[in-house]
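Researcher: We're teaching a course module on how sequence relates to structure. For the next exercise, students receive a sequence and then see the predicted structure as tokens, so they can try to spot secondary structure elements on their own. Here is the exercise chain.
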Amino acid sequence: MRLSLLCAAALIAGTGVAQAQAPSATTAFTGKMAPYSSLIGTTWNCKTTMTGMPAGMPSTANGTVTFDAVDPGTMHVHVAAARFASDSYFGYAATPGIFWSTSADSMGGTSSERSSDGKSYAGAGMMGGAAAQVTDTYNMMSATHTTVHSTMMVSGHQQTSDSDCTKT
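Model: And here is the predicted structure for the students to work with:
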């Protein structure tokens, strides 16, 4: 579940350093991040179906995802569910011309991913101390509906999740 709802949070993936002020719902993104300005201050409901999860984990989960602007090039994403929470940051680095994401969650998971198009991400991370390879694909179906497919390979074991999210 670590990346399942987290990836749903990343629906659509900046340079700059986070400033020591609270994120603002009115901050507009610039450059390659400009298309994501409409996410700021919104809440999405996501239903995620998971396979290959450790014993005791649910096969489906519901959660909410919220978006805040940290600065004109970085987005903060918070995910909350009954047994899971995560925080992520997304942005665009003009040099070398990639979208990036970093995250940490309540299950001991971390990840760092990159994308050339802001839709298909790949990277590495840790899950409870074990190395993991991660891929995420985001599909905007409409302005109020998106789907996310995520795969995580941990110690030779593949975990997948599919999220369906709607804007509230």
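Model: If you want an answer key for the exercise: The mean pLDDT is 81. Residues 19 and 72 are 11 Å apart (CA to CA).
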